[in-house]
Amino acid sequence: MISPFLLEDTYNSKEGSYELNVSSGVFPALSLVDLLAFYDEQTRLQVLESWLSLRLDYSEQYGLKRLRELIAKSLRNISAENILLSTGASEAIYIVFKTLCEKYPAATFIVQKPIYQSLYQVAADSGARIIDWNYDAALSAEENIVNLPLDESITGLVLCNPNNPMGTVIPDSALGLIVTKLKERRALGDPALLIVDEVFRESSLVPVSSVITHDTEAIVISDLSKSFSLAGLRVGYIASRNQEFLAACSSLKNYLSLRGSTLTELIACSAFEHAELIIKRNREIAARNLETLRASGIELDIHPDYIGGPVLFPRLTCPGSEGLFVLEGSVFGDYPDRIRIGFGSEPVDFNRALAALEYSLCQKPQVIQL
User: Fold this and answer.
1) Could you give the CA distance from residue 125 to residue 113 in angstroms, rounded to a whole number?
2) What letter does residue 29 receive in the DSSP assignment?
3) Cα separations (Å) of 309 from 213, 229, 239, 321?
4) I need a surface site. Which of 9, 186, 194, 304 has the fewest CB within 10 A?
5) pLDDT digit string (tens) for 233-272?
6) CATH of domain 6-34+275-360
7) In the chain, ranges of CATH 3.90.1150.10 domains
């Protein structure tokens, strides 16, 4: 049985029916022209020629080696052999949890909640036991770690860092505490793997290292859709130092996309070659929109030192209105009193969407009191 994917089904059902989206979790998409503009004129022509002359054959088993080298360099202390490319992070998530549930038939995962549904649903639908780690965005990461339920045998701990939908960041110092606790479980014979979705990490307003630099056993899932503004390329990846695990993931991928697109993987190299410029642009957009959001008076319900963005999960109820899309908290689980606010869109579009949200709240945000 495959459970409905509530968030994505909601977006699909509303596609084309709204002008404004106050819940978008993506930055403004880049075009091919935008990518080429990062190069000087001579190099630009050479890159364009490489795209146009590319033979559209199958890609390599693990994906284009040049792209895997660039990803590995960005993560630090790993090599291209530690990277498996996928069709977006969505395929990577499916592959990771199906592979782990095959290896550990009685798997138990502790999952940070709320979180993107597939990060627990794939495992749950495969028979795994899910233990919720109810994360309070208003508290510090260290305060939340005190309540991390690590008092029994586990297969892994699942995080989204920065979190979707909360926007919270677990900083490097707190990640170190988590890794220490997991190592204690490993000493008792548990796999105690750390599995982290890092799709928003590069663009986080609070700088944070990849978890793979903290933990040699970590599994990282990410893509170019969020921080790199290239959702249309559908390029994601799995990073792990465990070659046996990656080989099993690659074997499962044979039943899914099989191989990635040679063209999109080649284009993705240009994004990593200019990652600093792309990420700087997106952080500036998020910072500007967050300032506008703070000035609106809406209670953000998040610790001010841990806002990574570009999403937040305030305690508000609003079903949206004509022309305005609002993602209600119920698509993330039992959160009927919350909505997701996304602040990564173009500032002019964000301002209009925020104004429409405030108008639907009778021009005064209605905060739900507990």
Assistant:
1) 17
2) P
3) 22, 14, 23, 24
4) 304
5) 999 999 999 999 999 999 999 999 999 999 999 999 999 9
6) 3.90.1150.10
7) 6-34+275-360
Structure tokens at 364: 């005064």
Element (H, E) at 20: strand 20-21
120-143 exposure pattern, b = at least 16 Cβ within 10 A, e = fewer: bbbbbeeebeeeebebebebbbee
Fold of 56-273: Aspartate Aminotransferase; domain 2 (3.40.640)
Nearest to 179 by CA among 204, 205, 133, 148: 148
- Where are the CATH 3.40.640.10 domain residues in the chain? 56-273
Q: Where are the beta strands (DSSP E) in 93-234?
A: 108-113, 129-134, 156-160, 193-197, 219-223
pTM comes to 0.95
Q: What DSSP string describes 98-117?
A: HHHHHH-TT-EEEEEES--T
Which of 42, 62, 84, 69 lies closest to 273, judged by CA? 69
Burial of 59 (0-12, 13-18, 19+ CB in 10 A): buried
d(CA 176, CA 159): 14
